[in-house]
TrEMBL record:
Organism lineage string: Eukaryota, Metazoa, Chordata, Craniata, Vertebrata
This protein's record includes keyword Phosphoprotein: no
Keywords assigned: Glycoprotein, Golgi apparatus, Membrane, Signal, Signal-anchor, Transferase, Transmembrane, Transmembrane helix
Species this chain originates from: Eubucco bourcierii (red-headed barbet)
Entry superkingdom: Eukaryota
Gene: Chpf2
Protein name: Hexosyltransferase
């Protein structure tokens, strides 16, 4: 019986036996490894008793035991505890403008260019035109007094042209104004050509936890053999930590160190007071430079040292600077093309291993596949064109002349197609264009602009025989790297001045507008004001003393002012037969300060805080105006046909459409409107007739250089209402109003169902 019990126990333990053996083996090995670590820890490796000389490494490395250096604490995140003194009244915390300021982030690179009186308008301008737009922040420093600054340059004039004094003042200025904002500081001369992208890539691979003095290391004349300074002609890189440590010693260096060259003076100052020498290699990164010889031809330079250089010196004139920029741009472009070819080859090799196989390979290789529509409403249409005409015009006309950017685009695409054909078939065939038979293009938001060309070509063989043939080619202009456009800073604290034009036809909707305004702005204490614009017909204006058509609205305003004692809602009365939007804004503009932010609303607009904040953020003085596209709900009679409407939470922005034909709502600053209006007045003689055919949108579009931000706005939802279209306005405005009413009735499916039900009712 004992044997049977043992056998049964072993049978029960057999499934977990491997687990038990694995745990036992793991515990044994871990104990054995712990004993080895303890025995090995008794002997510690110690470095030399004396501290290594500061000139050996060129920068302050991490500690010898592998731990962080003494400045590591500056980069370790710390949690600042919140403490509130109970004896002091509560005060609202003032938040910083940007989150990176609150978190203590620094910008990466600051560039300083040293220039002089002789080269400010020549070499410095060449530097500004070639590389300045590649750097995030670049300033020019000179010793001139009240120097005339060339266009597009930021110049700091110290008032003393002595080289050492200029270097001293420059370092002091950089520390005072930018020392706490940037991690790296690159100092160069205006006779230096620097590859901006390579310099930016260099600092991304360097650790900020070191005192860095990096450049082309040069020996001092008659000085210490180990000491090196960075040659100023080739530029040099200084870390923020080094700048902070150097600043207290600048005055001593100015008084104690004698030197002719400013770069030697700075190098000697850093060595004497900080013990750091210039290095050309750090953390596996090399600072490659190239010294130009006299009469150098940049186009013929093929040396590897030249192509790898981050900076080139000396550059003697502006033309040479531009030629260097062209040559290095071509080198970078060739490298990019070669890298693209290598990546495409890798994609081809890997595609065969995927489940889809070769069929999953898209064209062009590495570019997103074309957009596949899920319904006929998502199909992206092709635009037809020839070399002279475009058959899909912006104004809606069926045919227009090909000009401007579109003409340049078509010419470039045809030239590119010929270049690709000749590159593929030469030397067997050489192609030349006879005629563009057909051209098609469309913009695919997933990949870029697509082209299909039917070309009539003349093909010439090596023996000189020619033949005319038609060939179809397809091309893609892919979307490139997304560029973030810098925008001026705006806040949500700006006061918004609402302007509401009212006619007699709008009286039925005023009560709802005022209720929404009171609930969403007055009750929430939003920084918004309202001005009403009463538009009287001449007949109603004559009888205003007997019967005021806007008396009911004025009574509602009085009730609001009684309910909210601190609120005043002014109104302006206007008499006109043609309520032109521009003429009305002219009256309102004169009665408000130039810095007023206007929101031109309609009586169907339902004001809410969410939209008002977007109005503030999207409208930038002297930069951008905002024309939102409101969401127009469909006619509930046609949409629901007697059924109860679904809840707004589930059908939000569904039973309606964004009315792109309406330009009634607008956000803009009074100063921008006045500037554009002045240009309009100077350009047009017979203003009355022209103003009746224009809206505020047209004024900004044709007579201002501002950005017009036109976007759908989900925060502006309008209930269905049949708008009254004034036939006294221009034909275009009247036609647009009628189309807006028709398109706002219902969707195609709803209209089809209504017609179907009507046909059924008529048949019975």
């Amino acid at each position: 019986s004992t044997a049977m019990r043992l056998a049964a126990l072993l049978a029960a333990l057999r499934p977990v036996l491997p687990l038990v053996l694995g745990l036992s083996l793991g515990c044994s090995l871990s104990l054995l490894r712990a004993s080895w670590s303890q025995s090995g820890g008794e002997e510690q490796c110690s470095g030399p008793p004396g501290r290594a000389g500061p000139l050996a490494g060129g920068a302050r490395p991490e500690e010898a035991d592998g731990g962080p250096g003494p400045g590591y604490e500056d980069f370790r995140p710390r949690i600042v505890p919140y403490y509130r003194d109970p004896n002091k009244p509560y005060k609202k915390v003032l938040r910083t403008r940007y989150i990176q300021t609150e978190l203590g982030f620094h910008e990466r690179l600051f560039v300083a260019v040293l220039t002089s009186k002789a080269t400010l308008n020549t070499l410095a301008v060449a530097v500004n035109k070639t590389v300045a737009h590649h750097f995030p922040r670049l300033l020019y420093f000179t010793g001139l007094r009240s120097a005339k600054v060339p266009h597009g340059m930021v110049l700091v004039a110290h008032g003393d042209e002595r080289p050492i004094w200029l270097m001293y003042e420059t370092m002091h200025y950089i520390h005072q104004h930018f020392g706490s904002d940037y991690d790296w500081f690159y100092i160069m001369q205006d006779d230096t050509y620097a590859q901006a992208e390579q310099v930016k890539a260099l600092v991304t691979h360097l650790s900020i936890n070191q005192d860095v003095y990096l450049g082309r290391a040069e020996e001092f004349i008659g000085g210490d053999e180990q000491a090196r300074y960075c040659h100023g002609g080739f530029g040099y890189l200084i870390s923020r930590s080094l700048l902070l440590k150097l600043h207290p010693h600048l005055d001593s260096c100015r008084n104690e160190i004698l030197s002719v060259r400013p770069d030697e003076w700075l190098g000697r100052c850093i060595i004497d007071f900080l013990g750091i020498t210039c290095v050309s290699q750090l953390q596996g990164q090399h600072y490659h430079t190239y010294e130009l010889a006299k009469n150098t031809e940049p186009e013929k330079e093929e040396e590897e040292e030249f192509q790898a250089a981050l900076s080139v010196h000396p550059v003697s004139d502006m033309t040479l600077m531009y030629r260097l920029h062209k040559r290095f741009s071509r080198i970078q472009l060739d490298r990019a093309y070669q890298e693209i070819q290598d990546l495409q080859m890798q994609i081809r090799n890997l595609t065969s291993l995927t489940p889809a196989g070769e069929a999953g390979l898209t064209w062009p290789v590495g570019i997103n596949a074309p957009f596949h529509p899920k319904s006929r409403f998502e199909v992206i249409s092709w635009d037809y064109f020839t070399e002279q005409h475009l058959f899909s015009c912006p104004d809606g006309s069926p045919k227009c002349e090909l000009s401007g950017a579109s003409k340049a685009d078509v010419s470039e695409i045809i030239d590119s197609a010929l270049e690709q054909l000749n590159r593929r078939y030469q030397p067997l065939l050489r192609f030349s264009k006879r005629q563009l038979l057909n051209g098609y293009r469309r913009f695919d938001p997933t990949r870029g602009m697509e082209y299909t060309l039917d070309l009539l070509l003349e093909a010439v063989t090596q023996k000189g025989h020619s033949h005319v043939l038609a060939k179809r080619v397809s091309l893609v202009r892919p979307l490139s790297k997304v560029e973030i456009i810098p925008m001026p800073y705006v806040t949500e604290a700006t006061r918004v001045q609402l302007v509401l034009p009212l006619t007699v036809q709008d009286l039925d909707f005023v009560a709802n507008f005022l209720d929404m305004f009171a609930m969403n702005t007055l009750d929430t204490h939003d920084n918004a004001l309202l001005t009403l614009l009463f538009i009287y017909h001449p007949y109603d204006a004559q009888r205003v003393s007997q019967v005021d058509v806007f008396a009911g609205v004025k009574a509602m305003v009085g009730e609001l002012e009684k309910r909210y004692a601190e609120v005043k809602i002014p109104w302006i009365s206007v008499k006109t037969e043609v309520p032109s939007q521009v003429k009305l804004m002219d009256i309102v503009s004169k009665k408000h300060p130039v810095d007023t932010l206007f929101f031109l609303a309609s009586v169907w607009t339902e004001i809410n805080t969410e939209f008002l904040n977007r109005c503030r953020m999207n409208t930038i003085s002297n930069w951008q105006v905002f024309f939102p596209v409101h969401f127009q709900e469909f006619n509930p009679v046609l949409v629901y046909r007697g059924e109860q409407a679904a809840s707004s939470g589930t059908d939000f922005l569904r039973d309606g459409h964004f009315d792109r034909r309406s330009f009634a709502e607008a956000c803009f600053y009074n100063s921008d409107y006045m500037t554009a209006r002045t240009k309009l007045a100077a350009d047009i003689l017979d203003q009355d007739e022209v103003l009746e055919s224009m809206e505020v949108f047209d004024v900004f579009l044709h007579y201002s250089g501002l950005h017009l931000f036109r976007a759908v706005e989900p925060g502006l939802v309008q209930k269905y209402a049949l708008r009254s279209c004034n036939p006294r306005l221009s034909e275009e405005l009247y036609h647009r109003c009628v189309l807006s009413n028709l398109e706002g009735l219902a969707s195609r499916s709803h209209l089809a169902m209504a017609l179907f039900e009507q046909e059924q009712a008529n048949s019975t």
